[in-house]
């Protein structure tokens, strides 16, 4: 039995397996516009641009994202780590709030979250905040501020668990685990909509950052991989709830429970190394 081959609605001579996530029309690579909810055709992408232009006038679109960036920036200023790289010694903030396995095992559980708001240099904070802004602008309008905030914290704690699993006695700081979690969530969200993440910037972005994680020294591989997995799992939970047509509020206890599970894993990793 022959299989019908779809062709681009604007270029009938070009075969394609991708359709617009809004109207369903088949589109070729030249007609694809990546959006947070998948590939769009030129007409639908224009409509999306108009909507986002109107939304951009409303400061509530990504308030959580902006708030997270502000908190990270303020703590970076408070730390006094103004060098380009990660040199310059360890500040008291790092000792008090950074992720450190023995301290977590002693009950200082706040470090699982507080460590994600500290950075070791301008490049560190700048790169993480740029990615947080880019990914937050994609995900927060889709998820809503509360679900986005919970997903962010869930990924952050998962990143802390990963860091403690790999290097429990290293003093670790940075929002990278949470940012990787946003990448993982975006990847899963695109896949759930039938969009190949590698046809958007998300797939290559994840690959590039994973390569950097393994190639450049003094980077928390466990934190990055843990955050990536945690964000992806959180997105799978949200998608499962949506497909079962459960009330939207069920996402909150589900993500809290997932955060607690990652926190318990982090505590176990910290305790095992003590």
UniProtKB/TrEMBL annotation:
Transmembrane spans: 62-84, 117-136, 148-166, 172-190, 197-216, 222-241, 253-273
Membrane topology per record: Multi-pass membrane protein
Record's GO cellular component terms: membrane
Listed InterPro entries: Peptidase_S54_rhomboid_dom, Rhomboid-like_sf, Rhomboid_protease_S54
Keywords from the UniProt entry: Hydrolase, Membrane, Transmembrane, Transmembrane helix
SUPFAM superfamilies: Rhomboid-like
Family: Belongs to the peptidase S54 family.
Protein name: Peptidase S54 rhomboid domain-containing protein
Lineage of producing organism: Bacteria, Bacillati, Actinomycetota, Thermoleophilia, Solirubrobacterales
């Amino acid at each position: 039995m022959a299989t019908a081959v779809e062709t681009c609605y604007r270029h009938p001579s070009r075969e394609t397996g991708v359709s617009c996530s809004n109207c369903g029309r088949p589109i070729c690579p030249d007609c694809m516009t990546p959006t947070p909810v998948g590939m769009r055709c030129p007409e639908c992408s224009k409509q999306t641009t108009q909507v986002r232009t109107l939304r951009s006038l409303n400061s509530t679109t990504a308030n959580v994202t902006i708030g997270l960036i502000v908190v990270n920036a303020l703590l970076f200023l408070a730390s006094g780590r103004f060098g380009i790289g990660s040199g310059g010694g360890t500040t008291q903030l790092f000792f008090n709030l950074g992720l450190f396995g023995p301290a977590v095992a002693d009950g200082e559980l706040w470090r699982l979250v507080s460590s994600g708001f500290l950075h070791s240099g301008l490049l560190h904070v700048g790169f993480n905040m740029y990615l947080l802004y880019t990914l937050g602008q994609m995900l927060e309008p889709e998820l809503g501020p509360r679900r986005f905030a919970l997903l962010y914290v869930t990924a952050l704690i998962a990143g802390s668990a990963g860091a403690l699993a790999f290097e429990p006695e290293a003093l670790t700081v940075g929002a990278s685990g949470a940012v990787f979690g946003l990448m993982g969530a975006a990847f899963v969200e695109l896949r759930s909509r039938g969009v190949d993440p590698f046809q958007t910037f998300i797939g290559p972005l994840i690959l590039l950052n994973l390569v950097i994680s393994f190639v450049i020294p003094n980077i928390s591989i466990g934190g990055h991989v843990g955050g990536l997995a945690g964000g992806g799992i959180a997105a799978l939970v949200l998608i499962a709830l949506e497909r079962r047509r459960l009330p939207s509020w069920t996402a909150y206890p589900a993500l809290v429970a997932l955060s607690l599970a990652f926190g318990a894993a982090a505590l176990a990793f910290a305790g095992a190394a003590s």
